[in-house]
Amino acid sequence: MEPKILLRLQFLVRVVRKECKHLNTTDQRLFGGLFTLEQATRLEEDPDLAERVEAFVGRFGRLQDTMGDKLLPLLLTSLGEKPSAAIDNLDRAECLGLIKSADEWMTMRNLRNQMVHEYIEDPVILSSALQTGHAFVPTLIAAANKMIAEITRAVLGVMQNAIKTERPNGCLRIVNPFV
Q: What does the alpha-carbon distance between residue 83 and residue 73 come to, in Å, rounded to a whole number?
């Protein structure tokens, strides 16, 4: 594998792990209970709640974008596949068991767009979309974990998740690039 691809995968794995952590934290803060229509209607009067909603929507979308638009195509490349259009990549990811369903992923994508664009206009749609997004968080994080596990397995396979690097003194040391 080209060092450039390996370095990019390392970077994306670190980013996706952070994004999962941040999404999970925001999800817990926003959905301590059910997100209600009443909460959606008072977003303008409750800046703290509005910031949590904005953080959830942004982090949900960012994780999905990073995984679908960056990590997945590079993962497919590292597996010897030829990345294609997003829907084709998702179909391939489903076949490889990296995501539960390409259709479900597209539903999450549309939901993300709905949360972003209906944010100001319709509290009913927003509250419903947020609840649905909350329900999809475990699915999104599970897909991230599967992709990271596949990267670790496929890219580092035989080397047992390790890369040998030479130190200045000439000794070799083992480094796991995905930690």
A: 5
Q: Which of 147, 174, 173 is nearest to 161 (CA)?
A: 174
Place of tokens 């979308």: 61
Sequence spans of domains, the chain? 3-175
Taking only the tens of pLDDT, the chain with its 179 residues reads: 778 888 999 999 999 999 999 999 999 999 987 888 999 999 889 999 999 999 999 999 999 999 999 999 999 998 889 999 999 999 999 999 999 999 999 999 999 888 877 666 788 888 889 999 999 999 999 999 999 999 988 766 534 444 555 555 555 444 555 55
Rounded to 10 deg, the angle between the 123-156 and 102-117 helix axes is 140
Sign of CA dihedral 34, 38, 42, 43: positive
C-alpha span between 122 and 125 (Å, rounded):
6
Q: Which of 107, 114, 148, 108 is nearest to 128 (CA)?
A: 114
| DSSP assignment letter at 100 | S
Which H/E stretch holds residue 37? Answer: helix 37-41
